[in-house]
Amino acid sequence: MSVTDSVSVFAEGTFEEQVHELVDYIARSRSDDERTAITHSFQEILKAGDGEKSIEEDQDRQRRALTLVLQETKGLGEGSVLEIEGYFNLLYSHLFTLWSTDSPETKQHISSLLQIISASPSEQSAVKYRLLSNLGNTTPRSSPLRLQIYSTLLQIASTNGELDVLPLSRNEVERWLKEWDISDEEKSAFLKSIIDALTKADQLQTAYEYTLSYITSLPSSSPASELAAIDAIAMALRLPTIFDFDPLFKLDAIVASKDHELFSLLQIFLNGGLPEFQAWSGSHAAAFEKYGLDKDQLEHKIRLLSFASLGFTYVGRDLPYSQISSTLEIDISEVEKWAIDLIRTGLLSGKLSQTTQSIHVYRSAARTFEREQWEALEKRLLAWKSGLAGVLEVVAAARKRPGGNATEALQQANGVEAVA
Hints:
Elements: H1 15-27, H2 32-46, H3 59-72, H4 81-98, H5 104-119, H6 125-138, H7 145-159, H8 170-179, H9 184-200, H10 204-217, H11 223-238, H12 252-255, H13 261-271, H14 274-283, H15 287-290, H16 295-312, E1 318-320, H17 321-328, H18 335-345, E2 348-353, E3 358-364, H19 371-400, H20 406-413
Antiparallel strand pairs: 1-3, 2-3
């Protein structure tokens, strides 16, 4: 669903000639009697009476002619894909030329066309996507008609299990909602329809991302906002790929749910550990089934997060297996399995050593970045600064000595044997 500025369609011939093309296309699928009746009706409108202006100069008669074409449009018609697309593109062109975009007539005609296109046989889904995309691109960026058009596209794709044909992106959708001249309620409803379609298509990770936008679109004190906040918390906990819970705490609706039992669980996943999770589990046993949560999966996730938090305090150093074993409450023989699992999630990067029974941590994610994390980062930066200062002193001293070799000095400063 590419979004561009309003697209004009240029067709050859006069208005009368173009209407004849539209009528001929409509009539080809009708019986002889129907074809004769349709043709006669248009001829009555097109011909000019005594003292009347020609159809090319009479916009009222042009509107009557096009209205009759629209009324006789019952489906996609009998033609090739190019013929169908050409017919509807010409129809769109005259529709937006004869009526303003925000006129009641335009809204009525567009609604009728959307129903006709949507109701066409499912085997014509490819051409339906093209017709609707063309219509969307013909409509001005700010037009509220775009909401109807893209909602129809979404509904067709979801019904046919073809959601992947729509190149939806969260940033693009948010830009549309800023451009479209629609109410806040309509924006929220559109986001909810996207979430429902993605959930139906089992694209739960993407549905979760849109849920954050949906929550933001709702008044933070509304019942809908409270319900959406709880759903978002449950979804974030439920999804095995979600490890970053900090964005949730930036949403007013989430913070407003602080008295809910799931909020306390969410806090554990942000900055708690296995003991806190086990304590919560013991006092909220019914919550797992109520919110569709898997206790074993959550326990696995909290162990990974605890491991990552531990790793963050050891960045640039060796993290002993014994420390990991104690924090995760696992046997030391299982540490490497958990380390590999954590590295696969992207939360930690490091090198395992069976000889030293440790993992050298290169990088590890912090669950939240608050005062403690900033202080740890400051210490690391100061240590690196001190180390670099020492290297610079060695290099400077080597340059001052007669025949001093700066490269050799730099290698020695880094503990690397110089190579002649």
